[in-house]
């Protein structure tokens, strides 16, 4: 019986507290919901672009790329570029979805070898570079990563799967490669 008397005391205290502070609790909850809704509307109309990114690889190097990553988001692989085949430099493979943000991008890629290159003594190499990340605009959900000879990497945002040539790619950076 002692348990039920204590339970009634607690119930009475909660009811008195709610009678005294109930309108303030409701106002605080309403204020929180309105602030969250206001932020949501601001972010969707005037806020910076955010959300998932599709990584697309383009390569003009004569060795296959086994894989790459941009700020830890993994990308696809690519075959070796064949200069004699005009269709070899088309739009690369893509991977979805990850979040790439910030002012800089750390690009890590693994360069593999063809059979002829292996027989010539060329082995797998891992390259890493930190370069400026271009500014992302609304509806630009595709981050294109362009690998060029000389361990150069260029990044740009796009609105779709495009197949540029090296001269069409914005030269946003010159890179120094750190081999590991």
UniProtKB/TrEMBL annotation:
Phylogenetic placement of the source organism: Bacteria, Pseudomonadati, Pseudomonadota, Gammaproteobacteria, Enterobacterales
Name of the protein in question: DUF3304 domain-containing protein
Keywords attached to this entry: Membrane, Transmembrane, Transmembrane helix
Classification via Pfam families: DUF3304 (PF11745)
Domain of life: Bacteria
Membrane-crossing residue ranges in chain numbering: 21-42
């Amino acid at each position: 019986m002692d348990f039920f008397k204590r339970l009634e005391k607690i119930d009475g205290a909660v009811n008195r507290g709610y009678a005294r502070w109930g309108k303030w609790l409701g106002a605080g909850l309403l204020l929180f919901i309105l602030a969250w809704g206001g932020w949501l509307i601001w972010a969707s109309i005037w806020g910076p672009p955010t959300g998932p990114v599709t990584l697309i690889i383009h390569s003009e190097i004569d060795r296959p790329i086994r894989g790459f990553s941009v700020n830890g988001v993994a990308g696809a692989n690519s075959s070796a570029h064949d200069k004699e085949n005009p269709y070899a430099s088309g739009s690369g493979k893509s991977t979805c979805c990850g979040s790439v943000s910030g002012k800089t991008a750390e690009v890590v890629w693994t360069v593999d070898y063809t059979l002829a290159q292996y027989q010539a003594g060329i082995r797998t190499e891992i390259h890493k570079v930190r370069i400026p990340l271009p500014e992302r605009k609304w509806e630009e959900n595709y981050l294109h990563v362009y690998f060029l000879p000389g361990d150069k990497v260029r990044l740009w945002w796009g609105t779709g799967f495009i197949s540029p040539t090296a001269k069409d790619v914005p030269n946003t950076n010159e890179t120094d490669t750190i081999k590991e």
